[in-house]
Design goal:
With 356 residues, the protein is an all-alpha fold. The protein has one domain (2-354): NCX, central ion-binding region (A middle domain of Talin 1), CATH 1.20.1420.30. The protein has 12 helices and 2 strands. It has a two-stranded antiparallel sheet. Residues 26-178, 212-352 form the Sodium/calcium exchanger membrane region domain. It is found in: Membrane. This is Calcium:proton antiporter. Pfam families: Na_Ca_ex.
Length: 356
């Protein structure tokens, strides 16, 4: 019952508080509703995932979160002025670091802590990670080295090319994940058994699954909308602490990715590490592969330049994530050490975001 009521209350609170300055007591209430919406989103995502099976279940949550995240970025860019010129870059990079280090590291740590070794399919996870690396480099690194426009930005033609390429790679990955090589993305237990469905649990009815899908979308709207509602309080706190403006994007990205984080940890605790990696790497890919094309279209009417190129420190962190992630995924087996390394990289990213 709580999983049904929470999305409705979250959206109602979003409608009542949209565009208003909230006093501290209301900010606390909105934060509580935000947490309830996150837990509700996780529940309904698991219901849908159980109905459609892997890897479709992971794909549903990753795409749903990313589509609403794109809407949030565009909304903030429309109303934010010059200070939001780098918002898309900061949000996408934060999502990549949180998913490829935080979600991946936490999943490996939980899976390996319970069963000593976390086992997954390197063919599927490796292909997904390679796609993330390619799209991230194309969208976030190359703008620093092109010469058609001054600064870390693409020309309109370059931006259009990057958008089409990102979307094409994402579409190709989804085809491979869901059709041609679906078995590469199915969970593997530590005993080496491939799991094509949940054991001993009857799947939900079609009506229950469709209801959960609708409530999942409603909950995600509430999560992202309420995250935007509390963002002025976050911005004020960040400013009072003397931190860079980019920290706001990091905090909002952390809030938006909470449903996937909880779902990934739950899957790892059930010895479904591959499902956790599908969520982690798939979310990073969806974030870039869908955000860049959407922002490219939005730039037709949005004023001002779009700054995409990462700074030197960010490029070093991205390169280190690529190297460590490759060494982690290639063997298809990991222990708590690899999980700890990825979590330490996330900690470095968060620390340098607050203290560059």
């Amino acid at each position: 019952m709580r999983a049904t009521i929470a999305p409705v209350l979250a959206v109602a609170a979003l409608i009542l508080t949209w565009g208003r300055d909230l006093p501290p007591p209301l900010i606390v209430l909105v934060a509580l509703l935000l947490a309830a919406a996150v837990l509700s989103a996780v529940h309904h995502a698991e219901v849908v995932a159980h109905k459609v099976g892997e890897p479709f279940g992971s794909l549903v949550l990753a795409v749903a979160v990313t589509i609403i995240e794109v809407a949030l970025i565009v909304t903030l860019m429309i109303s934010g002025g010059a200070k939001t010129q780098s918002l898309a870059r900061d949000t996408v990079f934060a999502a990549v670091m949180i998913t490829c280090n935080g979600l991946l590291g936490l999943s490996l740590l939980v899976g390996a802590a319970r069963r000593r070794i976390a086992v997954f399919n390197p063919e599927g996870s490796g292909g997904a990670f390679a796609t993330v690396i390619t799209i991230a480099t194309l969208s976030l690194v190359l703008p620093n080295f092109t010469t058609s426009r001054p600064g870390p930005q693409f020309s309109p033609a370059q931006l259009a090319f990057a958008a089409v390429t990102s979307l094409a790679l994402y579409a190709l990955f989804v085809t491979v994940q869901t059709r041609r090589h679906r078995d590469y993305f199915l969970p593997i237990t530590t005993a080496g058994e491939v799991i094509d469905s949940e054991e001993h649990v009857d799947p939900p009815t079609e009506r229950a699954a469709l209801t959960s899908l609708g409530l999942l979308l409603l909950a995600l709207v509430g999560v992202v909308g309420l995250a935007k509602g509390v963002s002025p309080a976050i911005e004020k706190a960040v400013g009072d602490l003397g931190m860079p403006q980019a920290v706001v994007g990091v905090v909002i990205a952390l809030l938006v990715l909470l449903p996937e984080t909880i779902a990934a940890v739950r899957a790892a605790a059930r010895d479904r590490v591959q499902t956790s990696l599908n969520l982690a790497i798939g979310s990073a890919m969806a974030s870039i592969g869908l955000t860049i094309p959407a922002i490219a279209i939005a730039m037709i009417w949005l004023p001002g330049p779009l700054l995409l190129g990462l700074g030197g420190t960010q490029m070093v962190l991205l390169a280190l994530t690529v190297v460590v992630g490759t060494l982690t995924i290639v063997p298809g087996r990991a222990n708590v050490l690899q999980g700890g390394i990825h979590l330490s990289l996330l900690a470095v990213f968060l620390f340098l975001a607050a203290s560059p």
